[in-house]
Amino acid sequence: MTRSQPDLFRRQALACDHLGSPMYAELLARLADDLEAGGPTAHVLRGHEDDPGPSGLALRLTGSVHRLVLAGAAPELTAYYPTTGRSWTTGGVAAVIDLLDRRGDEVRPLLDHAPQTNEVGRSSALLGGLLRIVERWPLPVRLFEIGASGGLNLLADRFRYRDDEGGGWGDPESPVVLDRAWEGAPLPLERPMTVLERGGCDLHPVDVTTEDGRLTLTSYVWPDMSARHARLAGAIELARREPVRVVHNDAASYVEGLELRTGRVTVVWHSVMWQYVPRAEQERVTARLADMGSSATDLAPLVHLFAEPTRRTPDDRHRFWVVAQTWPGAGEREFLGQMAAHGLPVVWE
Ligand SMILES: C[S@@+](CC[C@H](N)C(=O)[O-])C[C@H]1O[C@@H](n2cnc3c(N)ncnc32)[C@H](O)[C@@H]1O
Fold first, then answer.
1. Pairing of strands 182-184, 160-162
2. Rg of the chain's alpha carbons, rounded to an integer?
3. In the chain, N or C: fewer CB atoms in 10 Å?
4. pLDDT tens for residues 292-308?
5. Helices H / strands E in the chain, number of each
6. Tens digits of per-residue pLDDT, 196-231?
7. Residues 6 or more apart from 299 whose CB is under 8 A from it?
8. Which amino acids bring their CB within 6 angstroms of ligand 1?
9. Does position 32 have pLDDT exceeding 60, yes or no?
10. pLDDT tens digits for 83-97?
11. Residues 32 and 6: beta-carbon distance below 8 Å
């Protein structure tokens, strides 16, 4: 069934409410009303009536407006956007609709950008999984990420993680602090970890060392989710000091170019990208991992670590499981824990 635009906006509003953005819950619900009434929102979105639901038109629109605000190009909205230091109030709805009315021509071209995020909170799942890996193989790590976006999670070992019990892991001076990162079974926090090599690929890599890259990743984070913004800003600061190379490549071609190294644990990881990879390409990734895994040894192990919507059993629904597949061996899947959509907290098994 094809859903109408107002319907898609209302569904997105409910999702934002559920995931912790009362601002977008209210704004998107009111934009849905304006769409239905044929107001400025409908004018700006003319020509997008048949855009497929997964293209995220509602988030493309709010992200486009947010980008103007962040770039300092929409001073009439700064009074309502938490990312400019203010608080959202209901008056912001009329201000956004007024901007769409007067400056629709500036918003329309921005709608062509697909929402692009790099969710730093998901490092809590990836790094926690990595701690379990180095407990098993206490070797230096080579880290490779597919669908790495801006490469920020490749700096996961540079962040500070704190759990509910007052424990933690990582650099206490790090500009990225992940509070209440971990619950459930304790992680082996005492293990030293050295990442010797890191790199990633993406179909649309974002260069976070540029202002354009910063604006891209920041504009799609919902403005009233201040902890997500703080993590993102901190990780971009780190990446500017210590850039990570994310090459423009598809996941399968990238993994096909990897090899194991003796004396290192080779880790291929990813989060919330697998659903976008075409089936044939997924099969190429899986085949290459199994092929590399067949020559893995305890001195040159291979780990496929991911935090993706996954079914644990065929009857279960999709949940954000953190899963490790390891070689040598049969590459069986071990379900390590479950994360929230934006990463925190992870509940370890
Ligand atoms: C939802 S984002 C997640 C980014 C990052 N992994 C995170 O958790 O923040 C999905 C990313 O996967 C990338 N992507 C989608 N299909 C891909 C493919 N076939 N090969 C490589 N990257 C892909 C997209 O460009 C996008 O950056």
1. unpaired
2. 21
3. N
4. 999 999 999 999 999 99
5. 10, 12
6. 999 999 999 999 999 999 999 999 999 999 999 999
7. 139, 262, 263
8. 116-119, 122, 146-147, 149, 201-204, 250-251, 271-273, 276-277, 281
9. yes
10. 999 999 999 999 999
11. yes
Mutate to test the pocket of ligand 1, among 124, 201, 202 (most ligand atoms within 8 A of CB): 202
Q: What is the mean pLDDT of residues 30-45?
A: 97
Question: What is the rounded CA–CA span in Å between residue 145 and residue 219?
Answer: 23
Mutate to test the pocket of ligand 1, among 208, 236, 273 (most ligand atoms within 8 A of CB): 273
Token pair for 278:
């075409």
Q: Tell me the CA distances in angstroms from 1 to 7, 56, 259, one per residue in order.
A: 12, 16, 45
| Ligand 1: residue whose CA is nearest its atom 19 | 277
Arithmetic mean of pLDDT over the chain: 96
> Which residues in the chain are classed under CATH 3.40.50?
120-348
> What's the CATH number of domain 120-348, 3.40.50, 1.20.1640, 1.20.1740, 2.50.20?
3.40.50
